[in-house]
């Protein structure tokens, strides 16, 4: 096979390569800047060991190699401003923009109504039983005044009496903290604990205003010394109303009309009136689906020990046809358990249609139906008997 055929064939390969790269772009994109710009392209090079091989076109459009003298190189070939490297030469270019990793948009994409976003990292030292928490930064704070001087309190729930506090960052809506904190906690209790971050603004009279909070349960995290997790969460407004007589529970509802699926996310409870203050006392939530006041199915959260303010973040799903939503209801019961003793009801709430509920419970149910596939989150007061 002649060298002229090899040169022609290589030019054909080069042309086909460029055509395939161009075809991957939309018509409105500038090919001159994206594909053909030498400063943004990477040469595609045939190594010297393959120079002596020709490619034979077959009828089925496959290609096979034909052995030739391995030391024979073409007299000339398509070249670019890239010089040949040890006898290799350029046959095309690869656009590096096609292989960029996804851009991190956590500092640019903020949903409507966002009141701030907090970044932190956590890791756990097994031998010393230490939880290491690094407070990294907060962005897009929404203070009551034009300027903001902020600090963060960090709790390891269920202990709400002690906390660690950051330094105050003055006159910025985007404070950078980069501070490290240590909590002593045994490996047995670690997954039952929850991190709570409270972000405050200090005004000129040195009064503290709560801007938002982040609640982060540790039970679903793989915490090891070799696994440092960097996490961000949007700030949430705390429920500033005082707890109800029997406490409150926060949960989300969602209905998928296509799948006929009713979803309940049990988030947390607060201000529970435990019958006995003891680390051995456990609290869990029982979620029951009813239809015409007839029991259909129930599911339970994990039992958390020794806290009147448990954080669950557990999701449950029930099958419910859309035609049943006018007669179905959900009952959420908060129960206290203690070894060897009877389970006690701490409080209960029912959400559902007009047949069973009124007020906030009815509003929550109707909002869930009006916003299919969306999670609708609300607090509800617990009643001791219903």
Automatic annotation (TrEMBL):
Please list the GO biological process terms of this entry.
calcium-ion regulated exocytosis
Q: Could you list the residue ranges forming a coiled coil in this record?
A: none
In terms of SUPFAM superfamilies, this protein maps to: C2 domain (Calcium/lipid-binding domain, CaLB) (SSF49562)
Q: Name one Pfam family in it.
A: C2
Q: Recorded GO terms, molecular function?
A: calcium ion binding; calcium-dependent phospholipid binding; clathrin binding; phosphatidylserine binding; SNARE binding
Domain of life of the organism encoding this protein: Eukaryota
Provide one Gene Ontology cellular component: exocytic vesicle
Domain (C2): residue spans on this chain:
114-233, 245-366
Q: Which UniProt keywords apply?
A: Repeat
Family membership, please give it.
Belongs to the synaptotagmin family.
Supply the name of the protein: Synaptotagmin-15-like
């Amino acid at each position: 096979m002649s060298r002229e055929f090899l040169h022609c064939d290589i030019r054909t390969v080069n042309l086909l390569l460029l055509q395939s790269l161009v075809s991957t772009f939309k018509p409105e994109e500038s090919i001159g800047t994206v594909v053909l710009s030498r400063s943004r392209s990477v040469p595609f090079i045939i190594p010297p060991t393959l120079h002596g091989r020709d490619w034979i076109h077959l009828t089925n459009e496959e290609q096979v190699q034909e052995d030739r003298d391995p030391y024979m190189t073409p007299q000339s070939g398509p070249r670019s401003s890239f010089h040949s490297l040890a006898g290799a030469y350029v046959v095309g270019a690869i656009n590096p923009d096609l292989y960029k990793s996804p851009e991190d948009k956590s500092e640019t994409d903020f949903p409507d109504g966002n009141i701030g976003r907090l970044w932190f990292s956590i890791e756990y030292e097994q031998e010393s039983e230490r939880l290491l928490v690094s407070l990294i930064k907060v962005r897009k704070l929404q203070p009551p005044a034009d300027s903001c001087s902020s600090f963060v309190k960090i709790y390891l729930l269920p202990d709400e009496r002690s906390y660690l506090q950051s330094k105050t960052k003055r006159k910025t809506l985007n404070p950078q903290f980069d501070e490290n904190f240590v909590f002593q906690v045994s490996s047995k209790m670690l997954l039952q604990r929850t991190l709570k971050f409270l972000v405050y603004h200090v005004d000129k009279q040195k009064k503290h205003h709560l801007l938002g909070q982040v609640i982060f349960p540790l039970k679903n995290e793989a915490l090891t010394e070799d696994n440092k997790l960097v996490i961000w969460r949007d700030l949430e407004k705390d429920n500033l109303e005082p707890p109800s007589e029997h406490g409150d529970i926060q949960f989300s509802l969602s209905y998928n009309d296509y799948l006929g699926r009713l979803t309940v996310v049990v988030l947390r409870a607060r201000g529970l009136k435990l019958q006995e203050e003891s680390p051995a006392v456990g609290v869990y939530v029982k979620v029951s689906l009813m239809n015409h006041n007839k029991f259909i199915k129930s599911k339970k959260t994990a039992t958390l020990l020794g806290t009147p303010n448990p954080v669950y973040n557990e999701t449950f799903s029930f099958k419910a046809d859309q035609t049943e939503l006018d007669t179905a209801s959900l009952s959420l019961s908060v129960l206290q358990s203690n070894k060897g003793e009877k389970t006690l009801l701490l409080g209960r709430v029912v959400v559902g249609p007009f047949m069973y509920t009124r007020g906030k419970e009815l509003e929550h149910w109707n909002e869930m139906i009006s916003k299919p596939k969306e999670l609708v989150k609300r607090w509800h007061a617990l009643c001791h008997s219903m």
